[in-house]
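Changelog-adjacent note: as of this version, every example in the card shows the full chain rather than a window. The one below runs 306 residues end to end.
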Amino acid sequence: MSLSGSKFARLLAVLALCSAVGGVQAQQAVVVGSKIDTEGAVLGQLIYQALQRGGVPVEDRTQLGATSIVRNALIAGEIGIYPEYTGNGAFFFDSAESGVWKDAERGYAKVKELDLAANKLVWLQPANANNTWAMSVRGDLAREHGLKTLDDLARYLKDGGDFKFAASAEFVESPTALPAFQQAYGFTLDADQLLILAGGNTAATIRAASLQTNGVNAAMTYGTDGGLSALDLLVLEDTRGVQPVYQPAPLVREDVLKAHPQIAELLQPVFAALDLQTLQRLNGEVAVEGAEPAKVAATFLDSLGQ
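Full-length structure tokens:
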């Protein structure tokens, strides 16, 4: 069957359009999401910019919402990747009583296995940082008395050291928080050694320690809080594994990773460079100094030669 010139031209146009649509689909942008908090914004921008610099087409949906919103968006395919915490596997898979979440390597391996099987989600290289509940002390106190771990704190308290701790009521009363630390390390704080602040905002407890409000020299914090390094507070290491380990890591859909296998290679050195002090510093540049997360991420990637 022969085609007239006009019909042949229309056929070529249709074929060209189909080819163009196929090309667009092949280059469909990877949507990068994140949680709405400071650290979520920083980590989300690190992922977004690292992929962009590596030639992966990306779309910025960082600071999308709370954990449930972002995770559901990932599972539904509305976003392709976002930073999550390994310890949250305890809640995602209803296994909070398991001791596996208190070991960094075992917790990572477990959530990686469970999420791939249940949701076809892939956990990539985690950062060597732990954003869990912590007890932190003023830097001057730590340096003067050699306080680096919670065992050191127990020794200091046993010797009658001056100590006043700012915390939320939840931290003081929850069996998994202060009572668990006290039981594991063998110390007890009495009412005179506590300043209980309304709400659970670590910014308030960090500020109280920094300003020595009512004699406070220690505070309830999260491990990677931005105010810690900026205001010279030191996280005391939980050597006995009282708290679950919350290492941040990129969480990506399996189909997205198959379409763009270079994602793992691009993000590995970025998250490998994020130790506790580095993440505290980056968060502090945003939370304390008011820098834009995108600018903080760009400067850090520049420093890595990314």
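Structural remarks: The chain has two domains: 12-130+246-304, 133-235.
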